[in-house]
């Protein structure tokens, strides 16, 4: 973390925390049931670790963006989303999927929310992300088509082959 923060400072790159479930072997791509208090504490702990390195270098924390399965669960489960958002430092924006429980929790708790779209992640027919445990790289032309569809028609081709609306 120290080296990454120093390099970001050197290059003028903004730093954000990317907290996730404590699933080292599964790289945060497996759901772990945790109580609300545990989730909040986990976020405070993980963000706090990065914040220590940022403070040492005089670099501000720019945003928080949940990782892997935690991100997906936060999109559909308001209680999990609210517990995670409660651990985000005051005034720090949360990056997430628009129109989801994550955005609602951020709004309810007064945390700035920055909507994002995904260039290389599939969507289900209900507009949720499909987190692949064994992610494979996308071809450039597939990424271009996926982004183009989102920007031009506010839709994606879902995993069932049908077009579904997404907020952009």
Folded structure, characterized:
Helix 2 packs parallel to helix 4 (about 80-85) and helix 3 (about 70-75) packs across helix 4 (about 80-85). The protein contains six helices and eight strands. The protein has a two-stranded parallel ribbon with strand order 1-2. The protein has helices at about 1-10, 35-55, 70-75, 80-85, 100-110, 140-155, and strands spanning about 15, 60-65, 95, 115, 120-125, 130, 155, 165. The protein folds into two domains: about 1-115, Glycoside hydrolase/deacetylase (TIM Barrel, Alpha-Beta Barrel); about 120-168, no CATH class. The chain starts with a helix and ends with a strand. The longest helix is centred in the N-terminal third of the chain and has 22 residues, at about 35-55. It is an alpha/beta fold. Strand 1 (about 15), helix 2 and strand 2 form a beta-alpha-beta unit. It comes from Lithohypha guttulata. InterPro entries: Glyco_hydro/deAcase_b/a-brl, LamB/YcsF/PxpA-like.
List the helices and strands and how they pair.
Elements: H1 2-11, E1 15-17, H2 36-57, E2 61-64, H3 68-76, H4 78-85, E3 94-96, H5 101-108, E4 113-115, E5 122-123, E6 129-130, H6 140-153, E7 155-157, E8 163-165
Parallel strand pairs: 1-2, 3-4
Antiparallel strand pairs: 5-6, 7-8
Mean pLDDT metric: 93
Strand order of the largest sheet: 1-2
Q: What is the share of helical residues?
A: 40-55%
CATH structural class of the largest domain: Alpha Beta
N-to-C SSE series?
HEHEHHEHEEEHEE
Number of domains: 2
* CATH fold annotation of the largest domain: TIM Barrel
Provide the structure class. Answer: alpha/beta
Tally the beta strands: 8
> What is the name of the CATH architecture of the largest domain?
Alpha-Beta Barrel
Poorly predicted regions are none
Kindly provide the radius of gyration, computed on alpha-carbon positions and rounded to a whole number of angstroms: 16 Å
GO biological process, one term: carbohydrate metabolic process
Protein name: Lactam utilization protein lamB
Pfam families: LamB_YcsF
């Amino acid at each position: 973390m120290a080296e990454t923060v120093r390099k970001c400072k050197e290059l003028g790159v903004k730093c954000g925390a990317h907290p996730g479930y404590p699933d080292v072997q599964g790289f945060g791509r497996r759901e772990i049931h945790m109580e609300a208090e545990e989730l909040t504490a986990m976020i405070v702990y993980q963000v706090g670790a990065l914040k220590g390195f940022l403070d040492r270098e005089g670099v501000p924390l720019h945003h928080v963006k949940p990782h892997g399965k935690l991100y997906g669960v936060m999109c559909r489960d308001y209680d999990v989303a609210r517990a995670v958002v409660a651990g985000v430092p005051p005034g720090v924006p949360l990056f997430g999927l628009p129109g989801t429980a994550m955005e609602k929790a951020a709004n309810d708790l007064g945390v700035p929310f920055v909507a994002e779209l995904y260039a290389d992640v599939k969507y289900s027919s209900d507009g949720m992300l499909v987190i692949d445990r064994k992610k494979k790289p996308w071809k450039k032309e597939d990424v271009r088509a996926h982004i183009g569809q989102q920007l031009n028609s506010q839709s994606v081709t879902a995993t069932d082959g049908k077009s579904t609306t997404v907020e952009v």
